[in-house]
Amino acid sequence: MKIIKDTLDFKINEDVILSLGKFDGIHRGHSLLMDALKEGKKRGLKSAVLTFSISPKVHFDSEMKILTTDEEKMQLLYEDGIDYVIECPFNDEIMKMDAEAFLKMLADRMPIREIVAGTDFRFGYKRQGDHELLKRCAPKYGYQIKIFEKRQFEGTDISSTRIRRLLTEGEIEKANELLGYEYFFCGKVLHGNELGRTIAAPTANLLPPAAKLLPPFGVYAAHIAINGDIYRGISNIGKKPTVNGEYPAGVETYIFDFDDNLYDKAIKVSLCSYIRPERKFRSLEELKKQMKKDIQICKDRLDKYEAS
Predict the structure, then answer these.
(1) Segment 30-63, tens digit of pLDDT
(2) Is the separation of the CB atoms in 284 and 198 below 8 Å?
(3) 182-307 CATH
(4) Is residue 218 a contact partner of residue 238, using CB atoms and an 8 Å limit?
(5) How many other C-beta atoms can be found within 10 angstroms of the C-beta atom of residue 34?
(6) Which of 116, 124, 217, 282 would be a feasible disulfide site paired with 278, CB 3.0-4.6 Å?
(7) pLDDT digits over 112-160, tens only?
(8) What DSSP letter does each residue of 137-164 carry, written as one string?
(9) Distances from the Cα of 291 to the Cαs of 3, 10, 158, in angstroms?
(10) 52-91 burial, b for 16+ CB within 10 Å, e for fewer?
């Protein structure tokens, strides 16, 4: 997969089938577009996705949280077999560009043979461009167009907004249903205070970027990917209230049956099920006892989760 980022000065010389959008989360609603891109590849086209280096909504609302970081989004697109990703910089030039001018710019930079998009897609200055404009411009720029209605789940549209709301409310399993995979965090393991080793539960610490959406602070059953292998574990999301001092919100994970050194190594922590809220304990001994109970609950929960 070739990634073109931080520039609009590029040239693709292969015929492409293109999809455009924010693609935050790349959820089951987006899978309609991903499937259409795969079908285009069967017809000899290269698949291309145009997305943004920062969601326009985040640009205008600093409190807005994202489901996937740029790196996580690239990994999901890679797994979907995308050939080209154009990560468009959301700068003043793009913000003020007329919708058709934006489309012409893309047509000048690559031979677009097909475009696939959703009915909710908007682009160009003040969101002037939509799927109707894409249809009207198809003969002019020589591409075919396929527009998809939003996929629904339980009678309601599947959307990144809906998934954010479910995650914020702690509905991790339902959010995972809409995502089509377990909500995850990727990153390099950081050095912590090694408190876990003192209670016989060494942990791997990740510090997600501030823009990444965190579900409610608490304890979760988790799957952990390390060098292509999947392990079970238990994760705490929060600020370690039992430990003295101030800590940023992070993801701290105890990996079952694993004792290798993970410092500075990349891992992926995927949340499967919510166990309990984060709480402050009176002592490390009390925390240790609760951790033992949590681990057993977590293993039982994972048995049921994996069997379903």
Answers:
(1) 999 999 999 999 999 999 999 987 655 554 455 7
(2) yes
(3) 2.40.30.30
(4) yes
(5) 22
(6) 217
(7) 999 999 998 888 888 889 999 999 999 999 999 999 999 999 999 999 9
(8) HHHHHT-EEEEEPPPEETTEE--HHHHH
(9) 43, 53, 36
(10) bebbbebeeeeeebbbbbbebbbbbbeebebbbbbbbebe
Whether the full predicted model's pTM is greater than 0.70, yes or no, is yes
Amino acid found at 185:
F
Indicate the SS3 state at residue 204: strand
Domain 2-157, CATH homologous superfamily name and number: HUPs (3.40.50.620)
E-strand ranges in the chain read 2-5, 16-20, 46-52, 84-88, 112-118, 144-148, 152-153, 156-157, 184-188, 203-206, 218-226, 229-238, 250-255, 266-277
Beta strands 46-52 and 84-88: pairing type? parallel
Q: What span, in angstroms and rounded, lies between the C-alpha atoms of 75 and 87?
A: 13
d(CA 171, CA 211) in angstroms, rounded, equals 20
d(CA 16, CA 114): 7
Quote the CA–CA distance of 53 and 279 in Å, as a whole number.
36
Sequence spans of domains, the chain: 2-157, 182-307
Strands 2-5 and 84-88, bridge-based pairing: parallel
